[in-house]
């Protein structure tokens, strides 16, 4: 489910600093609402206390990924807990990778534009108030260079992403089997033992 009101200032969205600052008014507010948010989340939110679903928020401004607030059932089995923790760890890993990657991309893009404009004898502004830019062919050179330079990093990321997704899928299957097994009548369980 997506958090209604989304975006900056909508619903219960707060910065991680406000969420995790001990003793702050937002920390007290979130605590009174029964929220448990991971400290690493750049944008965190709090679904209603009685919610029994995972909640998906608006895209993070650094990674462009949508953060997920994972539902924790009261009677969570050890296998369900392991699955949830693996999903949370994967989300954190993904968040950190893309936040760093996007920061690097924007920094190098600005440096590229600045160096090309300087080589042409132009400043960062073309006209008063207007930012000078490069054309599509010139920017294509940057994109190609950036992808080539980061090829190895993206290859390792994709390999790890697939490994993590296979592990999550494996645990999801185990949890599904555990749930089916727990719903079988007691007599059938005893007869198969």
From TrEMBL:
<keyword id="KW-0809">Transit peptide</keyword>
<keyword id="KW-0496">Mitochondrion</keyword>
<dbReference type="GO" id="GO:0005743">
    <property type="term" value="C:mitochondrial inner membrane"/>
</dbReference>
<dbReference type="Pfam" id="PF10231">
    <property type="entry name" value="COA8"/>
</dbReference>
<dbReference type="GO" id="GO:0097193">
    <property type="term" value="P:intrinsic apoptotic signaling pathway"/>
</dbReference>
<protein>
    <recommendedName>
        <fullName>Cytochrome c oxidase assembly factor 8</fullName>
    </recommendedName>
</protein>
<comment type="similarity">
    <text>Belongs to the COA8 family.</text>
</comment>
<dbReference type="InterPro" id="IPR018796">
    <property type="entry name" value="COA8"/>
</dbReference>
<keyword id="KW-0999">Mitochondrion inner membrane</keyword>
<keyword id="KW-0472">Membrane</keyword>
């Amino acid at each position: 489910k997506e958090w209604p009101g989304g975006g900056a200032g909508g619903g219960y969205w707060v910065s991680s600093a406000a969420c995790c600052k001990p003793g702050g008014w937002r920390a007290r507010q979130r605590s009174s609402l029964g929220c448990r948010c991971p400290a690493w989340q750049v944008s965190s939110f709090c679904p209603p206390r009685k919610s029994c679903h995972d909640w998906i928020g608006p895209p993070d401004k650094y990674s462009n990924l949508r953060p997920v607030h994972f539902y924790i059932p009261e009677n969570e089995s050890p296998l369900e807990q392991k699955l949830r923790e693996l999903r949370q760890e994967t989300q954190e890993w993904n968040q950190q990778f893309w936040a760093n990657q996007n920061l690097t991309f924007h920094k190098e893009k600005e440096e590229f534009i600045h160096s090309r404009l300087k080589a042409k004898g132009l400043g960062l502004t073309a006209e008063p108030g207007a930012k000078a830019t490069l054309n599509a062919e010139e920017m294509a050179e940057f994109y190609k260079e950036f992808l080539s330079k980061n090829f190895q990093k993206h290859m390792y990321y994709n390999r790890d992403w697939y490994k993590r997704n296979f592990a999550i899928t494996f645990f999801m299957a185990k949890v599904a089997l555990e749930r089916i097994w727990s719903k079988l009548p007691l007599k059938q369980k005893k007869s198969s033992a």
